[in-house]
Amino acid sequence: MSVKNIVFTLTLMVIGAIHSAFAQSEEGISITVTVPVQSTEGKVIFGLHNESTFMKAPLAGQVSQIVDGKAIVTFEGVTPGTYAVMCFHDRNNDDQMNFQANGMPLEDYGVSNNNMSMGPPTWADAKFEVTKENLELEIRM
After folding, report:
1. Residue 109, number of CB atoms within 10 A of its CB
2. pLDDT tens digit sequence for 55-79
3. Torsion angle of alpha carbons 35, 39, 42, 44, nearest 10°?
4. What's the number of domains the chain is made of?
5. What is the DSSP letter of 7?
6. pLDDT at position 44 over 70
7. What is the pLDDT of residues 79-94, one digit of tens each?
8. Beta pairing partners, 71
9. CATH of the domain at 64
10. Please, which residues bridge with residue 35 across strands?
């Protein structure tokens, strides 16, 4: 995947985080995601994806400020199924992932299941199942 594709994907994540139109249901499952963050600068932007939206605009997006070394969000009203969560630390509050000229990220990012092999994240490595119980995930960046 090219740097342009990664930038495009992360930009869509931000747009989805800001303009989330995810259906909420009182009977749905909640997914609480915690990300330990060493810096207090900026915020963390999260996207909830299914297989068809992975590395594209998310089903739902949220933004969290960093409090006591953590960024925490909860996606409410999630129906059972297979999902992945992607996030990045927007250190400079410009609502986009920033990269060096050679394509290496300047800001930390992570995905569910914490499998950070070389190259962009994959659906197979990031997916998890939502069944009948609320979930708590921790993503390392």
Report:
1. 21
2. 999 999 999 999 999 999 999 999 9
3. -10
4. 1
5. H
6. yes
7. 999 999 999 999 999 9
8. 35
9. 2.60.40.10
10. 71
